[in-house]
Amino acid sequence: MFMEGVNISDYALIGNCRTAALVSNKGSIDWCCFPEFHSPSLFASLLDKNKGGYFSIAPINEFTSYQSYINDTNVVETIYETVSGRVRLIDAFTVVSKEAMKNSLIPEHEILRIVEGISGEVKMKSVYFPQPFYGKYRVKLEDRKKLGIHFGWRENIYTLLSTCSVQLCDDKAVSEFTVKGGEQVAFSLCYSNYSPVVLPELQQTSRKRMEDTIDYWKKWIGRCCYKGVYEQLVKRSVLVLKLLAHAPSGAIIAAPTTSLPEELRGVRNWDYRYCWLRDASFAINALIALGFEEEAHAYMNWIIHATRLTRPEVQVVYSVYGHNTLKEQSLNWLGGYKESVPVRIGNGADSQFQLDVYGEVLDAIYCYSKLITEFDKSTRKFVLGLGKVVLDLWDKPDNGIWEVRSGLIHHTHSKVMAWVALDCLIKLSKKYQWKNVALDRYIEVADKIRIAIEASGYNEEIKSYTREFNGKTLDASLLTLSLFGYCDYNSPRMVTTCNAIYSRLTKHNLTYRYLREDDGLTGGEGAFGVCSFWLAQNYAKQGKLEKAITIVETMLRYASPTGLFSEEVDPDTGELLGNYPQSFTHIGLINAVLCINEELLKGET
């Protein structure tokens, strides 16, 4: 019973900070991996409606539906309306407190789905169609009666429990049932990689587990200290970040999906279930500003741990556990989201050289330093090691922040981030009075980098900093020069750069990363979400609040009905593109809104 015609924006995300699932507004879980974000999928109908597998619960007869999060939670409710009645479907990965985990046996992972009758009488149907390893393998389901519908695949054990009868039909488990107003039917999908499997009691306690999950999320978001404009959108964004944070390691993944296309039927389809150091500075800033210091500590600890295998150099992307080899391969048996192929797993960016990442990591460390009185010797050694790499490599060409596959060039943004790296090292050395550091050398090379940027990275003809040294084209990454403190927001060159990007890279107030550049790939892409928020942040700081608010509110119109953003937006159709939901876009929203709110408060005083 896979539902036709779904778009990326038709999905909400549920998760437990280890893995996640996308639930459509028609009640179908069409993407879910176990046991980790980057594990092979159990359901992947999002990438192939026939082969991928799904778990749907919906009325049998014609219906309309709408979906939302229960306020201040990551629990999703879908309301079905039919001619005979109304029904509510509540979906969540159950989560419990650390204390509850110590005092009771609970499944390693549980997706809990509760169907509640609101009014009238509605005939419903559930179809459980698991297809392991991205739909490559078929499974044989076994009905173990009170112990549920069972199958094992490799070391994985999956069990479906239900409070209504379930019938096996080939490789599907199907249930047809009727729900009246006030009645409830529950389904529980449990995962384990060990035996004996822990199965939850369903008839008496499912509602309590759902209520505990709702309470967990409300208490967590209650720590958010932000009060101001777009408050609910900021809270939703940080709730998304929490879903994308890997609890065992502290890592924050880019997105929980793979191969959602940047261009429909195009080849720009990437696996984003990993952690990009590029995001570090913006994420740490956002978490600290909103009062989530525990998450900031965890993320920084992950950065320090994950980079151990590659030090003193760092690479672009790592797995949640710090694995530095992410072999990229194509899954040729999947048809792709709306026929967008290839479907890829792994990511070839693991072998690229991106100079900018050193600046982003060191800026994150400097921002994080406000939370601690001193770094330990190991971390200090790591920080200084990053500085040595920058001193050695700052004048080398690289792949750049956008990971182009057309070869190495001298990206202006990368040179700026090398300057940022050394600037942060200078400030850290002074703050902590570190001895025996190459402070004079940092200052000397930072000055040399700045001279090179101002001489070769700005084009007087187009009145803008440029994508590459001695170039004539634009890149939205240049909007971050002011965000990282390389220059003042109101410096003449930054003002004209923002204006040039708005004029030449922005369409309908949505900003592209770049246009008409050879990046080593065929086809194009949509406007890049975080770039619009960077532009808004610059305009807010330049005193152009009305323009900044217009850009933000334009972006908000393209959020999904549940408030989620993908990586990109098609400016002509408004369709969401790229992996979803995208942490970088939500981080951009948070930082832009914080900036706008700060400027509005200044105007009131």
Topology:
Blueprint: E1 11-15, E2 20-24, E3 28-33, E4 41-43, E5 54-59, E6 64-69, E7 76-81, E8 85-93, H1 98-103, E9 109-129, H2 132-135, E10 142-143, E11 149-153, E12 156-162, E13 167-169, E14 172-180, E15 184-192, H3 206-221, H4 231-243, E16 275-276, H5 280-290, H6 293-306, E17 317-318, E18 329-330, E19 344-345, H7 356-368, H8 377-393, H9 412-432, H10 439-456, E20 458-459, E21 464-465, H11 480-483, H12 492-504, E22 506-507, E23 510-511, E24 527-528, H13 529-541, H14 545-557, E25 568-569, E26 576-577, H15 583-604
Antiparallel strand pairs: 1-2, 2-3, 3-4, 3-5, 5-9, 6-7, 7-8, 8-9, 9-14, 9-15, 10-11, 11-12, 12-15, 13-14, 16-17, 18-19, 20-21, 22-23, 24-25, 25-26
Helix pairs in contact: 4-15, 5-6, 5-7, 5-15, 6-7, 7-9, 8-9, 9-10, 13-14, 13-15, 14-15
Could you describe the 3D structure shown?
The chain is built from 15 helices and 26 strands. The chain has a 15-stranded antiparallel β-sheet that branches. Helix 5 (280-290) crosses helix 15 (583-604), helix 7 (356-368) runs parallel beside helix 9 and helix 14 runs antiparallel to helix 15 (583-604). Strand 22 (506-507) and strand 23 form a beta hairpin. The longest helix is centred in the C-terminal third of the chain and has 22 residues, at 583-604. It is an alpha+beta fold and 605 residues long.
Short recap of the structure:
With 605 residues, the protein is α+β, with helices and mostly antiparallel strands. The strands form 6 sheets. The chain has a 15-stranded antiparallel β-sheet that branches. It has a 3-stranded antiparallel β-sheet with strand order 24-25-26.
